[in-house]
Design a protein that fits this description.
Nucleotidyltransferase, domain 5, globular, six-stranded mixed β-sheet
Length: about 290
Amino acid sequence: MGLAFWRNKTAKIRCCAYLRSDLVVLANQHQQLFEAPVSSIEQWPEAFATLCKEAQINGSHQVVFVLGSQYFQQFQVEKPNVSEEELAGAVPWTIKDMVAEPVLDLVVDYYQAPVAPMATEKLNVVSVKRSIVQQVVEIATRQDITVEGITIESLAAVNLLEVNDRCQLLLWQPKGGDLELTVVRQGQVCFSRQLRAFSSLGKMQEIEFTQTFFDSLSLELQRSIDYISATLKLPEVNVIKLAIPSRFCDEIAKQLQQNLGPKVSLLELSAIDDSQLFYQMPAIGGLQEGGLS
């Protein structure tokens, strides 16, 4: 996806750790998943060390860390009018009035944002507190493991979609988080938004499903689909992949398919055989090639 707050190319075995405020998920090179609950960032080192033992991760490995949404901020800004050589230095200052911390206390990266024809070029800018990046690197150092990269959960998740010329829509939800809609083409994010009004979806029981709820959700999805083709002039979305941490994910797909033209189906992951565990998928996404290009 072209975004990483830390990048180190070495010829070691890759693993991935997904860091959240409530849990740490570790995926080894065999896509086996290991999970430990935490209640604070201070518990990350102990949880990571425990999971490394369970997963048989050691100094022969390098790790990609994936940060949960609690630990980064994302903005869309106009691309600074500077040369490509000066761009990396200019981008952090485009968000100085949007963040509470001094820019020099942040680690900032960015990736291109598709825009309507003839519109001003834009960038998606992501910031992380420098202290968090330093702490994450220290976690790996304590286990004598090389840090290959640090990225964010939303980009790790879309790394699991096929790379092709079609526009694909991923509807997914982090554990206890907001419902996320992301449209991807050729491995790049074309459009994304949070559907906070529908974030109860992962917790709902089948008896709570109503036609009104799915009609409203379908309308929001259709609006985004129309925006992609009508405004951004990209190919129509013809595939919708679901990764909702719910045992009723199949029924959710069925309900949405009744209202929408694109094919709706569950995201297929061999490492996750229970749809209730879809919240673990950023750890699998971080294992994939291309996420730290």
